[in-house]
Amino acid sequence: MSIKPEINQIVVTQDIETDLLLEAVYHRFGYDFRDYNKAHIKRRILHRMQTTGARSISEMQHKVLHEEGFIEVILRDLSINVTEMYRDPSFYLSIRNEVFPILKTYPFIKIWHAGCATGEEVYSFAIMLKEEGLLNRAQIYATDFNPLVLETARKGIYPISRIKEYTQNYQSAGGNQSFSDYYIAKYDSVILDQSLRKNIVFAEHNLVTDSVFAEVHLVVCRNVLIYFNKDLQNRVVKLFNESLVKGGFLGLGSKENLMFTDVYEKFYVVDAKEKIYKKKVQGVI
Amino acid sequence: MEESTYKVIVIGASAGGLKALKKIISGLPKSFCMPILIVQHLSPRSDGFMAHYFNQLSHLQVKEADEKEPIRPNHIYIAPANYHMLVELNETISFTVDEKVSYARPSIDVLFESAARVYLDRLIGIILTGANEDGAAGIRTIKSFGGLTIAQSPETAEVAVMPMAAIQTECVDLILSLDEISNLLSSLCNQG
Ligand SMILES: C[S@@+](CC[C@H](N)C(=O)[O-])C[C@H]1O[C@@H](n2cnc3c(N)ncnc32)[C@H](O)[C@@H]1O
């Protein structure tokens, strides 16, 4: 048996072209996707190639460099913003039960949502913080590298079609108020209670190229690391470690893990299933 | 068919899939060496019960796939609910939470297409019972890269829509019952 040479050629060529496109995007616009998982990147790029009618990935590279506005299209393709309120309710329940009681012992807390997308996760937390009497003493940084999603996040307006699901999620996450108290419905949207927003700062921050900007008690970064290769995952969890106070908490997505990273020793596991970790205080637990 | 022509198997199933997969998985001998990657459509809230359940009735190691996990012989990997599962060039598993594809996450198409780009003509793709058309595009991709494509014969499928959709692409090499699929796989990779 032999691998048909022409098929092999096509795939190898596309891999090279993909790398070159990512180089071009980085050098021209500063967005660094070079250490993202390639299968995902290739899938998105090939998909875009089809819909734009480009004949090759190299042609897409040309478009990125010479056609105004095309970088925004690529950026949107490569930053997956799919999110929801109380995604994985059991994660939120665990945060409420295991992490908040300790945060309550601080006079003032800072929380960093890294890769917050359109904000649903941040508002889910804000509601929980409010219910636990923590919102007034919290400073929340919600960051993403995609300015478009931050705009949506700032508004806090979401399609009403999702509300039934969110209400169920809220309840499974340990919410015991009436969820409808937190929004008003208008046409086919819901507008979240503006008071939830008062301690939230939404800001652009790129986990690959920007550094730590604050010392925080809790970092929430869910479903972002899955897009990164091992090296980049390592770099980013180091960033989180640097940002956390001693005894601070880190919450990851259900398929993400500190286990094989360089900082694993620096944390202990609060909830293995929900991927919640606590930074050790100087080698002691 | 000579041994070692094929390297990895991908299987997609939807409605009725648990029963069909059970039949195939429990029929594979201990000596079965090729890794298998499976997407079974599930409710987004289900936990790893399926992998657990299959593991008990298989001679092989069945597990829910982990992120960055290397794809190894004698293992069967099941995609977790609510994530797309992909194969990386270095033969590890990765996940995304991209939009649903054909109303599904995990999507069969996403797994098949990414696996085809890695394994080229050394991949076997199998579509089993199901009520939607996920997997048809993936079958087309596997075929275009020279892999072997199989659909469960619609008359033996609990729900025929999915294998029918695959067959309609005209990219399916073999149309087989579950028993025939099971026998074929065992014969491909039996070192014992
Ligand atoms: C799938 S969403 C996750 C949203 C939310 N945390 C959740 O779990 O539902 C991933 C987000 O990560 C952002 N992202 C990807 N790469 C990033 C980077 N290098 N720096 C900051 N944010 C990034 C994307 O723009 C996207 O909004």
Account of the protein in words:
The complex is a heterodimer of chains A (285) and B (192). Chain A has helices spanning 5-29, 38-52, 57-66, 70-78, 89-103, 120-131, 147-155, 163-172, 230-243, and strands at 109-114, 138-144, 157-159, 183-186, 189-192, 200-204, 216-221, 244-252, 267-271, 276-279. Chain A has two domains: 4-78; 89-279, 3-Layer(aba) Sandwich (Rossmann fold). The termini of chain A are far apart. Chain A is globular, with a radius of gyration of 21 Å. With 285 residues, chain A is an alpha/beta fold. Chain B is α/β, with parallel strands linked by helices. Chain B has one domain: Rossmann fold, CATH 3.40.50. Chain B has helices at 17-27, 49-57, 108-119, 136-144, 161-168, 178-188; strands at residues 8-13, 36-40, 61-64, 75-78, 84-87, 93-96, 123-127, 148-152, 174-176. In chain B, the strands form two sheets. A seven-stranded parallel sheet of chain B has the order 3-4-2-1-7-8-9, sandwiched between helices. In chain B, a hairpin with a 5-residue loop joins strand 5 (84-87) and strand 6. The radius of gyration of chain B is 15 Å and the shape is globular. Chain A binds chain B through residues 1, 3-4, 7-8, 11, 15, 37-40, 42-44, 80, 82, 223, 226-227, 230, 254-257, 260, and chain B through 2, 5, 66-68, 80, 83, 86-89, 94-99, 110, 113-114, 117-118, 120-122, 144-146. The complex binds S-adenosylmethionine.
Topology at a glance:
The complex is a heterodimer of chains A (285) and B (192).
Chain A: H1 5-29, H2 38-52, H3 57-66, H4 70-78, H5 89-103, E1 109-114, H6 120-131, E2 138-144, H7 147-155, E3 157-159, H8 163-172, E4 183-186, E5 189-192, E6 200-204, E7 216-221, H9 230-243, E8 244-252, E9 267-271, E10 276-279
Parallel strand pairs in A: 1-2, 1-7, 2-6, 7-8
Antiparallel strand pairs in A: 3-5, 4-5, 8-10, 9-10
Helix pairs in contact in A: 1-3
Chain B: E1 8-13, H1 17-27, E2 36-40, H2 49-57, E3 61-64, E4 75-78, E5 84-87, E6 93-96, H3 108-119, E7 123-127, H4 136-144, E8 148-152, H5 161-168, E9 174-176, H6 178-188
Parallel strand pairs in B: 1-2, 1-7, 2-4, 3-4, 7-8, 8-9
Antiparallel strand pairs in B: 5-6
Helix pairs in contact in B: 1-6, 3-4, 4-5
Bound molecules: S-adenosylmethionine.
